[in-house]
Queue: 3 jobs
Job 1
Amino acid sequence: MVDSNQPRIHCAGPSITEREIAYVTDAVTNCWYSDAGKYHQRLEAAVAEYLGVQHVVPTPTGTSAIHLAMMVLGIGPGDEVIVPELTWIGSAAPVSYVGARSVFADVDPDHWCLSAESLEAKITSRTRAVVVVDLYGDMPDYKRIREIADRCGIAVVEDAAQAFGSSWQGRKAGTFGDIGIFSLHGSKTVTSGEGGLFVTDRLDLYERALTLRDHGRRLDGTRFYEDFDRYYYHFELGNKFKMSSMQAALALAQVERAEELVTCKRQIHEWYCQELAEIPLYQIHTEREGLINSYWLPAVSIERGRQLDKLRVMRELEDCNIDIRPLYYPLSSLPPYCDTPSGHEAQQANRVAYDESPYGFNLPSNLRMTREDVVRVSAVLSRLSEEIVSTPTPTR
Ligand SMILES: *Cc1c(COP(=O)(O)O)cnc(C)c1O
């Protein structure tokens, strides 16, 4: 039974100000004809500057940015791409869209991101790339991952969908791979409603992206190519992965506010740390040295050996009209993958992911959260914890 006397606390959601409204209004009013690309250009420049990256390609979603990455890298049938077990399915699904095979690697128990050892163990002669995920704003050991990828000649795609504004040793998330991708979905820290970003320092990959996201056109140089009009000449089959001006305008306003939005996320995380410090059974993940986590969603591990798992916590909070998220199910356990050979192998091999998944969850961290909301969430967790600790474990 949901206690609807209390307003719902949403897990994630944006902060929208007069700036976003002004830019979007300008875009819908004026950005047609010769000005159609105005906000795209400003967005690309703002993202390039914020991240310290050379090239930026806005896309309709984060999923399509990963799909574009697969196309740009020339990945296709017969190829394997390594993906961590614990992530949103959008990290893995594009591997199948291009006809390649996802191979699932295990995660590190400390931060739930890709384990470098497991990555190394999964590489075969067919491996072409690894999608590395900055889960919930955290990051894995990029130094080792890069070293393994370089030695084995595979590309690194950094899925930084959940990590806009995180950094490691002063370098921003999204810049650790050959290609970085972001999602600008409404649940993410920086949003355009629906949207995504493909970023890279490599000119060759950037140029491929411009062609492959535009039905194989090459709109560089003059309009006329030999005897053809380039606008209507397709050099190859591509896809159509673009963003509208209204989305670009919204995204620009958000990127201009990125520091403020990240500060807000970090504040919410800090409040939870204070509230949960004395409460047994929950361990909130914090930063390792060198990392600045933009804390898209605070991540919590539940103590083992109690009558408590993520579903119990979720139900309890849902009854109080509070929306939390479970740590992801291992991808190899889900219907699209569980009956494939690589799924079977992963179910046996990826022990950490299977051990962690039932005992992890994310606390709500929408960008309108107040300290009172954090106190309300923490009070429910505290009550549940007391109940569990004081109930003797049933003996058989
Ligand atoms: C949100 C997300 C995506 C996909 O982004 P969309 O914009 O929803 O397509 C991909 N990977 C991760 C890790 C995500 O969280």
Note: The chain has two domains: 18-256, 258-390.
Job 2
Amino acid sequence: MLRIALMLLAGGLALVSAQPGRENATKPHILFIVADDLGWNDVGWHNPDVKTPVLDQLAHEGVILNQSYVNYVCTPSRTAFMTGYFPYRVGSQHLVFFPQQAQAIPSNFTFLPEKLKELGYATHMVGKWHLGFCNWKYTPTYRGFDSFYGYYNADEDYYTHVVAGGLDLRDDKEVVNTKNGQYGTYFFADRMVDIIEKHPADTPLFLYLPFQNVHEPLEVPKRFENIYMNVQNENRRKLLGMVSALDEAIGNVTMAMKTAGLWDNTLVIFTTDNGGWIVASGNNYPLRGGKVTLWEGGTRGVAFVHGKMLQKTGYTNNELIHAVDWFPTILAAAGGTADDAMDGVSQLDTILSGQPSPRTEFVYNIDDVFPTKQGAIRVGDYKLIEGTAGKPDGWIHPANLTDSQLDSGDPTTGTWLFNLKDDPTEHHNLADTMPDKLKEMQAKLEQYRGSLVPAINPLPDPKSNPKNWGGAWSPGWC
Ligand SMILES: *[C@@H]1O[C@H](CO)[C@@H](O)[C@H](O)[C@H]1NC(C)=O
Ligand SMILES: *[C@@H]1O[C@H](CO)[C@@H](O)[C@H](O)[C@H]1NC(C)=O
Ligand SMILES: *[C@@H]1O[C@H](CO)[C@@H](O)[C@H](O)[C@H]1NC(C)=O
Ligand SMILES: *[C@@H]1O[C@H](CO)[C@@H](O)[C@H](O)[C@H]1NC(C)=O
Ligand SMILES: CC(=O)N[C@H]1CO[C@H](CO)[C@@H](O)[C@@H]1O
């Protein structure tokens, strides 16, 4: 697979550089936008009740990615984006990193912006990190970003920027304590625009924008909520308002790119980090389950790409892509090559011209820790889940968000085999009727399990307490 990937990668570069009529033969600017907990059924191109005009237009002008997979929760997906490795090979496969635990991506993994800097890129990040902060060496400006404006953890209040008793907002290394009462999406978008306005056009720009929206808590300025006055369920109304706030912020970012003259040479990659969190009114209908589950609703992410360098646009691409692929893909677009050992493969030709994906299989997750062992893989059209698949389970329509479906239904531990080509919504478990296929898939999962790295999951450390650090979550205790 790697050899094929390298060949495709060389082809992809030729396509980029051979494009006629380009004024600037410079490397493309790259806008890598990650939405937080944005569900399959929470974007306008899947659900006309959702108002995302900016994203809809970008998606329709570009290429909608219909089989773009992510991990089941936040830290693992961000691990995949930043390292190009499946989280189970890094040690970050077990849920998310928590503020009180000394958890981080080990230093021997090179992060994507470090590679891009070697290729001459300016690298900036605005938003959520969630890849470890207990030592400065694990934080964004020590892992390849020229600048960082955002937060280390997850789940903070959109107005106070506090999570679990500590302020979590930084400008590079400095604590920001002047934003209490201001909705995060506004000032994060302002910072994004500011970076773009100050950026020298002759330097390639890598802008990593992992947005806070639409993660819990459900908070949004009234004017966004008011777009959905027809929605009865208050939580759902707020969630949708948060989606529209995200959309407006991305509109401001794209407008700034145009004004700065960068847009025509910009490759936009948009993806969610995992499926919608049904408990907080996110929705993945008609897919099964959502965030924190290995069902398709948790792992098949909304995504698209956009840019003038795309050769074929305005269609839905059904090729198999996984979160680990963005590292080598972005690197290839920037004129570099990824490490051979990496799990990710370049999808540059897949997105540029609709070539077949070099990927035929991937690992959804392997975790031996919680609540029981879990493992899931895809090979060709088939998917195997063994152990805990996660909850909420089922096919939950937005109209049914408040009912008991949220926590009842099928058992969440078992063995499932699906043919996703025929059954993308995982209604028909083939484990009993296809015993040979099941054995083959189980053997494959065991093979993958051979490279499992133990989860980084130490007990909470009292040294982390923000009281020891002037009230903010701070590096320095591991
Ligand atoms: C980093 O070190 C760990 C532990 O030795 C190893 O499992 C992993 O493969 C290494 N990763 C890289 C990218 O070198
Ligand atoms: C987008 O820009 C407009 C015009 O500057 C501003 O009024 C609005 O608050 C911005 N929206 C977001 C979400 O930042
Ligand atoms: C809503 O839930 C009810 C009861 O569980 C079920 O009969 C109905 O089909 C569901 N509606 C949708 C649109 O899924
Ligand atoms: C997207 O994938 C689904 C299968 O999950 C398929 O039914 C649908 O036709 C695909 N969309 C397009 C436009 O190809
Ligand atoms: C990014 C970049 O190099 N932009 C340049 C593209 O070319 C025009 C004129 O050909 C310049 O004005 C831009 O600065």
Note: The longest helix spans residues 234-259.
Job 3
Amino acid sequence: MTETRHSVCALDCPDACSIVVQVEDGHGTKLRGNPEHPVTRGFLCAKVTKYLDREYSPARLLHPMRRTGPKGSGEFTQITWDEALDTIAARLQAAAREWGPESVLPYSYGGSMGLLNANGMDRRFFHRIGASRLDRTICATAGSAGLVATQGHRYGVDTVDFSHSRLIIAWGANILTTNVHLWPFIVEARRAGARFIVIDPHRNKTAELADRHYFIQPGSDKALALGLLHVIFRDGLQDADYLARYAEGAEDLEALVREYTPGRVAEWTGIAAADIEELAREYANTRPSVIRLNYGVQRNPNGGTAVQAIAMLPIVTGAWRELGGGMQLSTSQAFALNRAALELPDLQLRSPLGRPARIVNMSQLGTALNELTDPPVKAMVVYCSNPAAVAPDSNRVRKGLAREDLFTVVMEQFQTDTADWADIVLPVTTFLEHTDLYLSYGHHYLQLARPALPPPGECRSNVEIFRLLAARMGIHDPELHASDDDMIRALLDTDHPHLRGITLERLDREHFVRLNLPSPFLPFAEGGFAGGKARLGTEGLRYEPVPEQHAGERERYPLQMISPKAHDAMNSTFSYRDELDRETGIVWLHSEDARKRGIASGDAVRVFNARGAVTLHAEVDGKTRPGVVAIPSLRWPKRSPNGSGLNSLISERLTDLGGGATFYSCLVEVQKCHDEQ
Ligand SMILES: Nc1nc2c(c(=O)[nH]1)N[C@H]1C(S)=C(S)[C@@H](COP(=O)(O)OP(=O)(O)OC[C@H]3O[C@@H](n4cnc5c(=O)[nH]c(N)nc54)[C@H](O)[C@@H]3O)O[C@H]1N2
Ligand SMILES: Nc1nc2c(c(=O)[nH]1)N[C@H]1C(S)=C(S)[C@@H](COP(=O)(O)OP(=O)(O)OC[C@H]3O[C@@H](n4cnc5c(=O)[nH]c(N)nc54)[C@H](O)[C@@H]3O)O[C@H]1N2
Ligand code: SF4
Ligand SMILES: [Mo]
């Protein structure tokens, strides 16, 4: 019997697609984009079109397992759920008894964007036992903090309204790879005459299709924003009326940017002064204009204030007034769900700790595992993440994971590097197999997914596992045994006008429901900034190039490395596929840098610095600026010839705002390998 069911893509992507699943006799046979959904528009990206290969992969984990070999060996034996839960309950309790509950650390990120599975029962569980709290900084906190510093709210231009724009700037945003459902709206705008500009240190797929590509020096975006503001104020191109009504600090900003002349900014950004003049004038004089900013810009030590400064551009020009004008980094705050009712932070007061627990920054996991005392981390529960691959300074992370006195649980779908280091591995469901609620950070539709396919083997959802674990630990508080539907109702339990009229029943019927927003949604056309006015304050806004971490670092490691997202990947989620090795096993070099080092396309090369080394194949094609190398992120370290991942090169340095990771600020040297290693 053939049926169609509905689901939602749970991958960490702004598009949050609505999916139609074709099911024959309980077996999924095809995934399609829902043609009814106004942003999905009937298509899925290539990697999710073939997601059923992942769903039914012979490499899926199907049973709980206990480690039998040395840590990291990946040698396991199948055990029962009872044995797994008993062991975990006993080990977490022992750690809490001996070292205090904060010796337990949860570690999770974007494996699923489902609110229940990634931000729901897990939070309740860890709050209730008094575990350390994880500061989830690995992706977006710098940009969020920068955006909030200027706008107050994390609202953005609606994806569907990009078609009304006449100038679209993709600023550190590889739209065709990481946000492909925005593309059709850009195509529509261009058909109507819009220009499309890219600001990126890498000639990515999106830059290839731009009317103009500005090759910017990584980490210098804040200087460029200040330079553009310089020209705008100097030439009187600001919207004085908008500024007077809806912003504060415009005079201070005008004074600050006076020193950021195109000539000075050119030295930092590598973009010619004449080009900066031209870009500023084109931006300020074209209506409507929109900036699609993505998170690439904020993965460096100036990243938070870079976003803060860029967010000032559509305010100073008054671009927000018009349909198709403004900026989009994230639209997520518009969802205004009752997150506190889902996560229940007050359960901490009911924990043995009796107070809010300490906070551990996930971008410094190496330090947390190796250096934290009072108490040390004695047990770690990993879900929706693969820290051995994705976290900075992965050699130190590995050293931490290797500790004999650390008890590690990994809840996974595949045998990742992190799972190799586990003591207990638990098999979990995919998004096609469990209930969840999804917001989006790129559109304004709230979506519900019910299980479309049966879980294989003994897989269970995160939500179910945390319920079972609570019971095994003798925790019977009703909040830890709430049903999926109760948790969704808790999220919807708010007076916020954006959610008025949205109920679980309606979500079940309609699958996706637009937030109760005006149509069109122009969040800042008439002010509307949190606190009344946009803040153009100048504190922390001065630009300083990123200083070296160690004296002489730049001489030894003269190349700046970035590691933007691979096209057919989702961080390390698809790394089980052999085909991905071709895309993630390369480093792009500029021909000048390659020539100096005697490197040709196809050569095996070693990319290294004081922290680590990784072996890759060179691709010499002028896709980066001289002095900049790019490695597509990310694959399982165990798939690299030397077993070491790209993030062995990355430092634990944090961003200026938001405590974020600085993946795209990394100095390396590249050397030809003389023997295939
Ligand atoms: N196919 C695919 N899609 C994905 C992902 C994936 O792994 N693969 N990952 C998902 C996740 S977790 C996220 S956070 C989003 C991220 O989505 P994006 O932010 O669009 O992706 P990134 O590749 O991180 O960065 C975007 C661009 O910023 C550029 N960039 C790097 N440094 C700088 C800089 O200093 N200045 C400027 N102007 N540009 C810079 C990079 O070259 C890249 O082209 O994508 C999501 N979607
Ligand atoms: N060098 C470099 N490093 C980076 C980045 C970069 O651009 N360059 N990007 C950074 C960014 S932006 C991000 S967001 C992080 C991403 O880091 P992570 O969020 O850790 O991303 P993934 O590597 O995709 O790992 C997610 C894992 O969750 C599992 N999973 C999926 N669904 C579920 C579920 O329902 N339950 C459980 N228990 N597990 C599930 C998947 O099988 C997968 O192994 O990486 C960061 N690291
Ligand atoms: S990864 Fe993004 S584009 Fe691909 S199906 Fe999922 S939400 Fe859509
Ligand atoms: Mo991310």
Note: The mean pLDDT is 97.
